[in-house]
Amino acid sequence: MNTRNGSHAGHTLEARLAATLCAGLTQGTQALPHDVASRLRFAREQALARAGLARQAAVVVVTAAPGGAAVLGRSFVPAWLRAVSVLPLLALLAGLVLIDHWTSREQVLAAANFDTQLLADDLPPAAYTDPGFAQYLKSPAP
After folding, report:
1. What are the angstrom distances between the C-alpha of 90 and each of 54, 99, 103?
2. 57-105 residue pLDDT tens
């Protein structure tokens, strides 16, 4: 099922639901007093007008006018501009990946440096597992 058919089916379902609700509300208003019914009718007309305006509203864009003033206006936003607006997010993600890579590399280099110093030391590596090693570290250097 493609998106248009799914969207069309959704709109059809919404239209049926709206018609059913309107019919039920209309039948229910016949038993109401005239002043209440007229207020409900007025409120319904206002809601429908607002819904129509909301569907017709375009994207509001802030643009720079000559002289440095900011102007609000309605404009169509092209697809390429929306696609380009993703670039800062991609740059942020790339920066985070690079930072993670750099810190991992620094940790590996630090561990390699420590291992190199350990292996190049006069003390044999087996001495580090000796129970008296802590005592050796506490003793003053000759």
Report:
1. 32, 14, 20
2. 644 555 555 666 665 555 667 888 888 889 999 999 999 999 999 999 9
Task: Answer whether 60's CB lies under 8 Å from 74's CB.
Answer: yes
Summarised one tens digit per residue, pLDDT across range 79-91 is: 888 888 899 999 9
pLDDT cut 70: percent of the chain above it: 77
How far, CA to CA in Å, does 48 sit from each of 10, 18, 38, 74?
A: 20, 12, 15, 22
The reported pTM is: 0.35
Torsion angle, alpha carbons of 67, 68, 72, 77, to 10: 100
**What are the extents of the domains in the chain?**
3-57, 88-138
Structure tokens at 67: 């002289």
- 64: which residues sit within 8 A by CB, 6+ positions away? 70, 71
State how far the Cα of 123 lies from the Cα of 91, in Å rounded to an integer: 49
